[in-house]
Amino acid sequence: MSENIKEKLFGALDFNAIADNGDFKEDSVREVIIAPILKELGYSQENIIRSKQLRYSYLKIGSAKKIPITIIPDYLLRIGDCYACVLDAKAPNKKIVNDENVAQVYSYATHPEIRAVYFSLCNGAEFSLFRTSGTNIPIIYFEIADIEKHWKLLSTYLSPNSFQSGKNITYIPETIKTQFDYLNRPLLEEISVKKRAAKRHFGVHGYFTRQSWNIVQAYIKNYSRPGDLVLDPFGGSGVTVIEALMAGRKGINIDLNPMAVFLVTSLIAPVNFADFAAAFIEVQEEYLKNEPKTKEEINKALKKYNRTKVLPLAKGSDVETTDQLFSDKQMAQLGLLKSIILKQKNENIKASLLLAFSGVITRANLTYHISTAIEAGTGFGGDASAMRYYRYRIAPDPKDIDIMRYFRLRYKKVCEAKREISVRINENAIANAQIIKGTAADLSFLRNESVDYIYTDPPYGKKIPYLDLSVMWNAWLDLEVTEEDYAQEAIEGGERDKSKEEYNELISQSIKEMYRVLKFDRWLSFVFAHKDPEFWHLIINSAESCGFEYIGAISQKNGQTSFKKRQNPFTVLSGQLIINFRKVRNPRAFMKANLGMNITEIVTQTIEGIIAKENGATLEQINDELIIKGLELGFLDLLKKYYTDLTSALIDNFDYDDKSEKFYIKKDSKFTTHISVELRIKYYLISYLRRKEKENKNASFDDIVLEILPLLRNGVTPKEQTILSVLEDIAARAEDGSWRLGRKGLQTFQMM
């Protein structure tokens, strides 16, 4: 501002005299200090609530009787029907950090009727601002006498336009040639999976999880430009970095698992195909000449060739060490094959042959379980138990495969993959890729604001202990896993019994590092498929605390249903959500919608709504709907407290059909939600119009009626006039008669 803000707010007030002035108390702080600050920030009287009564129930001393206590916060800063901040005045002699006063105001901000984004304290001499979902460390603290230095930051956090009031994401059709606008990119709708269409990812080597290449490629092309740097700090088998290179970008793949790093580096290592073929023939001939088959030959080979390292297996395994996962014959034949490959002098060819060798290990072990699917050319199909059951389980009838026959098939698959990528990933372009063994929690090798786009698929809590499960391959490939690696692995449980708190801390630190290295006005797409809302809440809070602005979450399938999903339909999710964030200089905070109903009603209504809409809903559809609604309407923090697993509630309250794998309303039952029809209409109208807005589309009244009516079936069918009445209250009509979300609707039901 051109004029001195302190003088404009407070005139010639002597702040040094405040502490010694016995007449300058809380009422003076409110009128002399806080009132002008709020006015200058842009709050009008209708935004400031001074008479909101909050009720708590405390136990009376010496009695079990509950006594309701009513308190009234000094200021509630309201935007629409949501509360942005609770601000409390204190006397100049009261502390506003590291004191019970902070806990008191925090209790106001987290009250079920308030659920504010921030809470703040001012004692006339000092000002502190806290994030309600954060720690007890203030995000802003300053002396009022120095307000000039802190005004811009205070305005960034606390002015009314610092809170999300709708999205304005414009989609520019590809047919229209315009300048690429990083800031305003569209949210992609669900993309059809084409996993098997790319030889570079399908058939080369198995891994525990793998994103569908065409989905990753679509996101890379949508949020970045050719030549940009794309990062995946939980890189796994390298789908992101490979698709970045294929799309003409630069890529960085980071993973703690040396097996994952090996898979990526060996796959993209350029080779001369004639030399590669000659090397394969050389290896094949020497192997067939010396292949140990008889018991005597096997015993001799076991003494001559290097075998797998003897490493301990995780608890729950059928055997204790890696050497017990192989028969003597398998050990001898694999040892011979590996020793021949290691004689190759060309490092890229050696790595590529070892990639084929590692694929043989997946089948040539005692944990290989046969499936009914027959892989062409092999006469069998199946998985190593580590990839099927997520533990080392000895097969009931271990398959004795022809090692060279399978090595030949793996070589062919590696060749096909390398030929497919050679147009983009070759000697000239390999410098555009960095494949790094490391942790997402420490990206210190990257400069601040050096990355153009991040697409990442982190571990999901205790779902897959990657390092524990990779030990069979790491043992054969001489890949080292240190105790520090285990300490940095972002999982819950595992052989080291890592706690949920450790997992949360590593994920939070990783998000902080992603924020640091990402350029401003660029995007982070965070893939997640966890059923526990607490982890979703963690991601959103961590991202917001760093400075990311949440834009939207998209439900996305990821290909064929896994064996784990087929075996455990109620505990394993086959789909995922892709949460999209934007790094901007002035991110708008999420506000939690005041829906006027308790969490049980919200959950029940959401479940019944998606069942009605889809005529029966899968576990994934229900989970996705709850998570997205929780994100969009701000009740995810409540959801995490009461619903860590919906399975029991679904089974108890809904019918499940094994054939369709869907939940339905119980036979001869009605919808159970009994909130007012107007509120239910508003609830679904907001969600529907927000989604249309993200598509940059308006909705006709007929479309709205057809969308809303199926979601309201509980014995009462509202009149179209009722829908229209609610619509007119929260939406705006365009010239062609269609509707879009209006200012009141945006403010009422915005995110945290």
Please explain how this structure is put together:
This protein is of the alpha/beta class and 752 residues long. It has 4 domains: 5-162, tt1808, chain A (Alpha-Beta Complex), CATH 3.90.1570.30; 195-268 and 425-589, Rossmann fold (3-Layer(aba) Sandwich), CATH 3.40.50; 273-421, no CATH class; 633-748, Orthogonal Bundle (Arc Repressor Mutant, subunit A). It is built from 27 helices and 21 strands. The chain has a 7-stranded mixed sheet with strand order 13-10-9-14-15-17-16, sandwiched between helices. A hairpin with a 6-residue loop joins strand 2 and strand 3. Helix 8 packs antiparallel against helix 13 and helix 18 (533-546) packs antiparallel against helix 22 (636-642). It starts with a helix and ends with a helix.
Helical/strand content category: alpha/beta
Mean pLDDT: 84
How many DSSP E strands?
Answer: 21
**Rg over CA atoms:** 30 Å
What coarse outline follows from CA principal-axis ratios? elongated
| CATH class label of the largest domain | Alpha Beta
Brief rundown of the structure:
By secondary structure, the chain is α/β, with parallel strands linked by helices. The protein contains 27 helices and 21 strands. Helix 11 packs across helix 13 and helix 17 packs parallel to helix 18.
Features:
disordered C terminus, six-stranded mixed sheet, alpha/beta, seven-stranded mixed sheet, tt1808, chain A, Rossmann fold, 752 residues
SSE layout:
Elements: H1 5-10, H2 26-41, E1 48-49, E2 54-59, E3 66-71, E4 75-79, E5 82-89, H3 100-109, E6 118-122, E7 126-131, E8 140-143, H4 147-158, H5 213-223, E9 229-232, H6 239-246, E10 250-255, H7 258-268, H8 273-290, H9 295-304, H10 328-341, H11 347-363, E11 368-370, E12 382-384, H12 385-388, H13 403-421, E13 433-437, E14 451-456, H14 466-469, H15 471-476, H16 483-488, H17 500-517, E15 518-528, H18 533-546, E16 548-557, H19 563-567, E17 575-583, H20 599-614, H21 619-633, H22 636-642, H23 647-653, E18 654-657, E19 662-665, H24 677-694, H25 701-708, H26 720-730, E20 731-733, E21 739-741, H27 743-748
